[in-house]
Here is the input.
Amino acid sequence: MTETSMTAKEYFSQARRLDNIIASDLEELSRLRELAKSVSSPCLEERHNPNRPTEAPFTKCVIRLAEAEAALNDEIDRFVLLKEQMRAVIYGLKDPNEQMVIRYRYVHNMTWQQVGDELGIDKSSAKRWHDAALRHVIMPADPIII
Here is the structure.
C-alpha cells in the first residue's frame, strides 16, 4: 500500500493493529522471561567435549529476551508517534462529535455500541457520524505507515 492510496479508515485502523502486535509481543516477552528464570542445574563432573557449547544453557534465552525487548521498545515508539500524528489529524476535524467518534473508535478501540453509549446516541448514528468524519479527514502529508 502506498501512502497516496491509504484511506483515512486504513490509516486510523493501524492503531488497533499495532496495539495487537504490541500485546502479542508482551505475551512473548513474558514467556521468555519465565524461560530465562528456569536455570537448569549445573553438571559438576569434569568432562571436556569440544563439540559441546561452553556457554550456560539459558544464555541464548537471555539474548533472545534482550532482542525481543528492544524490538518491543521500537514498536512502542512507533505506536506513540502514530497516536500523536492521529491526534493531530483528529483535532483537524471541525465537528467535535466527529472528533469524538474517531477518537473512541480508533484511539480507544471501542466497539460501535460503546461509542454510541459514550456519545449518548445509537449505534447507527455513531456509524453515520463516523462515515461523515472519515469524509472530512485531511490526511497528513507524510502519514506513518506500519
Q: What stands out?
A: The chain has five helices and no strands. Residues 39 and 58 are 6 Å apart (CA to CA).
